[in-house]
Design goal:
membrane; 68% helix; mainly alpha; 253 residues; 2 strands; ECF_transporter_component; transmembrane helix; cell membrane; ECF_CbiQ
Length: 253
């Protein structure tokens, strides 16, 4: 898979959660999200228990609350959508603080906020304890189609390349006294975007030719064979198993 890539969501550490094989964490997060989505929205207490379970995982992984909350801001667009639901949904209405709100809209907003926030929090914890390279190895270990794994791998690597190229072009413009202040400067920015596309395309062709010359035939060699013991699987699946018990209680209560 090549060299590892550190990303902004990752928090370096040596906790028990960091030490778990990546495919066990991927399976655990996926199962947890499925259980959360399957929980009836009326079981409000169950979502509080899910939040406590994630808090326990964050504590075990030594991920600070501030680190987690700051990265939860990515769901702000979904929060805005949920806030609008009580106003635009149809059906029975109820008065709240002088506002006429839809009952179905209120339940829908709660459903989106609760399940969306828990899903994002679980994903952030996964990213905070697993490097990108390990995530790709985990996907490969879980038998995801090799072509999809390669596309994800190249996307991550070329994302860094393009970002670095954009930074160099910005520095070059600033060193020549350019500063975008209005519409009249859009032409320069458009030319920069075109140059960036051409450079990225040419670099991609060169990389592909280099890979072919080294024997690439459509599949990447597996350098590290990631395995997991029964104890590691049990440790990783403790989260979704506990969530499943809560979900079943939510349906029967």
């Amino acid at each position: 898979m090549g060299a590892g890539h550190a990303h902004r969501l990752y928090r370096h550490g040596h906790s028990p959660v960091h030490g778990l094989p990546p495919h066990t964490k991927l399976a655990a997060v996926f199962a947890f999200v499925v259980v959360v989505v399957s929980t009836p929205r009326e079981a409000m207490w169950a979502f509080g228990v899910y939040a406590l379970l994630l808090a326990a995982v964050a504590y075990a992984a030594r991920v600070p609350a501030g680190f987690l909350l700051k990265r939860l801001l990515i769901e702000v667009p979904f929060v805005a959508f949920a806030v609008l639901m009580p106003f635009v949904a149809e059906g029975e209405r109820v008065e709240v603080l002088g506002l006429s709100l839809s009952v179905n809209g209120l339940w829908g907003a709660w459903n989106v906020l609760a399940k969306g926030t828990l899903g994002v929090a679980a994903s952030v914890l996964l990213a905070a304890t697993t490097e990108l390279r390990e995530l790709l190895l985990g996907l490969q270990r879980l038998k995801l189609p090799p072509l999809l794994v390669q596309i994800a791998s190249f996307m991550i690597r070329y994302g860094d390349v393009i970002t670095d190229e954009m930074r160099r072009m910005r520095i070059a413009r600033q060193s020549r006294g350019f500063e975008a202040k209005g519409v009249r400067h859009w032409g320069v920015l458009a030319k920069s975007a075109g140059a960036l596309f051409i450079r990225s395309y040419e670099r991609g062709e060169r990389v592909h030719l280099a890979m072919v010359s080294r024997g690439y035939a459509g599949s990447m060699p597996v350098i590290d064979e990631v395995t997991a013991s029964r104890a590691q699987w049990s440790y990783a699946l403790a989260l979704p198993c506990a969530a499943l018990v809560v979900c079943l209680l939510g349906w029967t209560a």
